[in-house]
Amino acid sequence: MPAEPGNALRRGLSLPRRAVRRLAQVGIFAKPDVSLEHQHLARRYVIRGVESGGAIEEIGRYVSFADGEGKPLTYLHPIDAVGVNGLHAVVVAPVLVRVEMFRVGRTCELLITKHRLGHVEVGKRSLLESSLLFRGVHGYLAIEPGKKGKEATNSRLPVFYSRSGEPLEIPEAFQAAVEAVTRGILCAGCDHSHYLAPPVAAGLPETNPGEGTLSPTRSVGGGQSV
């Protein structure tokens, strides 16, 4: 599989302008790009991503993140959006594996990339290294006609083939993340995270609101939280 430039990998899937315009028209907003951020108090660099996206019946786009082994990460905080099919939660970590998928009808594109901090000398800005883990084009997702926006009925994962027609196996470590993102590209009016975990779900103690920090919230219709 040919290597792609690091900058291109950080931006995510390269979609045709027509697809980008259609996503904007129907109000689906996914933010696949990752960025290098500096934590001044901890004196370290981290990588930042935003789980985002959603679907309508005809089209969907979704992006989420896992750790280097494919396990769910704890999000930093949820995002209360004005509408649906937009931003859901922010995550920061030294290593992020981004899983991004785009769907038109039953046809999908999948991009899995790994982003990590590169080695750098003390006192200098860290580097962001990106690598390609999987690229699937023109995949097929088994959805019953008239039931788009629901979970796939015959398979939890889309099927991808090489140009010569040979099956392409999605890396086993990231199949759970891909399943979650598949639900995202079928989630009409999406207003919640499909793979990133809230702090409480990750086994962390719930924050006391009286300490001056918001406790974890869950998302409900319209992007509001309770």
Question: Radius of gyration, Cα only, in angstroms?
Answer: 18 Å
* Spatial shape: globular
Count of distinct structural domains: 1
Chain-averaged pLDDT:
83
How many helix segments?
3
Q: List the secondary-structure elements in sequence, H or E.
A: HHEEEEEEEEEEH
Total beta strands = 10
Distance between the termini: 45 Å
Instruction: Tell me the major beta sheet.
Output: 8 strands, antiparallel
> Which regions contain 5 or more consecutive residues with pLDDT less than 50?
204-226
> Structural class from helices and strands?
mainly beta
Helix content: 10-25%
Strand content: 25-35%
Which key features would you list for this structure?
8-stranded antiparallel sheet; 226 residues; mainly beta; globular; 33% strand; single chain
Structural commentary:
The protein is mainly β. The protein has one domain (6-200). The protein has three helices and ten strands. The strands form two sheets. Strands 1, 2, 3, 4, 5, 6, 7 and 8 form an eight-stranded antiparallel β-sheet that branches. β9 (160-161) and β10 form a beta hairpin. The longest helix is centred in the C-terminal third of the chain and has 10 residues, at 175-184. The N and C termini lie far apart (45 Å). The relative contact order is 0.19. Mean pLDDT is 83; it is low at 204-226.
What's the layout of helices and strands?
Layout: H1 6-11, H2 17-25, E1 35-39, E2 44-55, E3 59-66, E4 77-78, E5 87-93, E6 95-104, E7 107-118, E8 127-140, E9 160-161, E10 167-168, H3 175-184
Antiparallel strand pairs: 1-2, 2-3, 2-5, 3-6, 4-5, 6-7, 7-8, 9-10
